């Protein structure tokens, strides 16, 4: 049975063009940096994001980890949002594997970090305190609603950081969603920051992989770290080939996912018991809470949706996050609205 799978855009399957490119990929040993397909992907990714160099990594988690460890030494501190993916969902790897301390500050409603809050978090030059080295931002910001950071904010934050001798890393897992919805090039969002990780395996549909981008000197450090972390992947051109197809053919169509998220939200808005988050959807994620009047629990709703061929993910007690992607068509949107109507009315 083919499910209407709204749990995440990570469930996307490779397209026929990706599978063909994978089958035909010219490969080499990427640990010797001799895989032409990986090298091509890295160059393409760096160019798209306005950076000197790129590094293909198995996951967004490894991209953020290698990136943060390339910027920070043991005992250094990185300032990040308290709902950032790196803080919440990356296993605390920067701390357990890199000895990097994090200072979490509360994001504003739009997912950004207020400069006054960042200023207050920067450590004094005092032997009792860790050394603040880096600020991490997330775009789109997943847990804050798939919300988008603007080029103006990113420039302001980066200038602020650089004036204080700090660096900026962006978790841009869904940077192309952020660019497409603002009708701009991704590089306008990434040029001001020192490094960025983006994912090929989410809305862009590639089966595996992310790319970490930054200066040539930074990527040289990150390459060493990737090897230490076990991320040297040998004939990785087989999967990089799908990443090239993703970058070349799957970016512009993200607007279709945003449009379908809008249509799905309009349908859900009419159903009593669904309390949509203000402003949702900002991109391809819809967040809502169940009103007290709804007798079913989120787990019961998940089960009943599954019986109707729909997979949905509760993102907390009484809360749901639904994510659109290229595996969700108009029929899937209609079916989902109809199922929620049937269950909640
Ligand atoms: C915002 C964000 N950053 C990083 C990641 C980590 O990516 P991966 O699952 O490839 O490790 C995710 C995964 O969902 C994410 O949503």
Characterise this structure.
The protein is α/β, with parallel strands linked by helices. The protein has two domains: about 15-250, Aspartate Aminotransferase, domain 2; about 255-345, Aspartate Aminotransferase, domain 1 (Alpha-Beta Complex). The protein has helices at about 15-25, 35-50, 60-70, 85-90, 95, 115-120, 150-165, 175-180, 185-190, 215-230, 235-250, 255-270, 300-305, 330-345, and strands at about 5, 55, 75-80, 100-105, 130-140, 165-170, 195-200, 210-215, 275, 285-290, 310, 315, 320-325. The strands form three sheets. The protein has a seven-stranded mixed beta sheet with strand order 2-8-7-6-5-3-4, with helices on both faces. A four-stranded antiparallel beta sheet has the order 9-10-13-12, with helices on one face. α1 packs antiparallel against α11, α3 (about 60-70) crosses α10 (about 215-230) and α12 packs parallel to α14. The model has no long low-confidence stretch (mean pLDDT about 100). Pyridoxal-5'-phosphate binds near residues 60 and 173.
């Amino acid at each position: 049975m083919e499910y209407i799978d709204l749990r995440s855009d990570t469930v996307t399957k490779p397209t026929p063009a990706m599978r063909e490119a994978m089958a035909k990929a010219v490969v080499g040993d990427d640990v010797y940096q001799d895989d032409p397909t990986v090298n091509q992907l890295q160059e393409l990714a760096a160019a798209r994001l306005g950076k000197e160099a790129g590094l293909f990594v198995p996951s967004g988690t490894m991209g953020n980890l290698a990136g943060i460890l390339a910027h920070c030494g043991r005992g250094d501190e990185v300032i990040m949002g308290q709902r950032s993916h790196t803080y919440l969902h990356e296993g605390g790897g920067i701390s357990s594997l890199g000895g990097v301390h994090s200072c979490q500050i509360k994001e504003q409603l739009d997912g950004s970090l207020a400069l006054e809050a960042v200023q207050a978090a920067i450590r004094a030059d005092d032997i009792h305190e860790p050394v603040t080295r880096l600020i991490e931002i997330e775009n789109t910001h997943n847990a804050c609603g798939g919300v988008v950071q603007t080029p103006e904010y990113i420039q302001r934050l980066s200038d602020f950081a650089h004036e204080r001798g700090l660096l900026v890393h962006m978790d841009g897992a869904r940077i192309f969603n952020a660019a497409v919805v603002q009708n701009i090039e991704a590089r306008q969002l990434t040029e001001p920051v020192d490094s960025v990780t983006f994912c090929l395996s989410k809305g862009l549909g590639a089966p595996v992989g992310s790319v970490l981008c930054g200066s040539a000197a930074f990527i040289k450090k990150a390459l060493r770290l990737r090897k230490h972390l076990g991320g040297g992947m040998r004939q990785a051109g087989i999967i990089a080939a799908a990443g090239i197809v993703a970058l070349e053919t799957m970016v512009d169509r993200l607007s279709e996912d945003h449009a379908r998220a809008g249509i799905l939200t309009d349908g859900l808005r009419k159903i009593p018991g669904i309390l949509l988050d203000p402003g949702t959807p900002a991109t391809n994620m819809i967040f809502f809470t169940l009103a007290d009047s709804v007798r079913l629990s989120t787990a019961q709703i998940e089960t009943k949706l599954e019986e109707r061929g729909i997979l949905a993910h509760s993102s907390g007690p009484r809360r749901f996050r639904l994510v659109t992607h290229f595996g969700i068509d108009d029929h899937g949107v209609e079916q989902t609205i109809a199922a929620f109507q049937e269950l909640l009315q």
